[in-house]
Amino acid sequence: MVSCSVLLVAVSAIAYLPFIAHFSYFNDDWYEMYATGVRGPWVFIDIFSIDRPARAFLMIPLYILLAGIRFPIM
Question: Where are the alpha helices (DSSP H) in 1-74?
């Protein structure tokens, strides 16, 4: 029997992979990349402290892990 996580990955792949060439930054993403370039990844705590504080603790390790890659690979 297929586990729920495998099914979720398969459905997500079917839904998103056809559009992968169109993924990029959106209007609200640019200021985050500018702020991290100027002040470092810890600026996410300031950005998300009011409405989404848990997101900062997700974004900081991801930014560090990806070494600050700012532009998607085309």
Answer: 4-16, 30-39, 43-48, 53-65
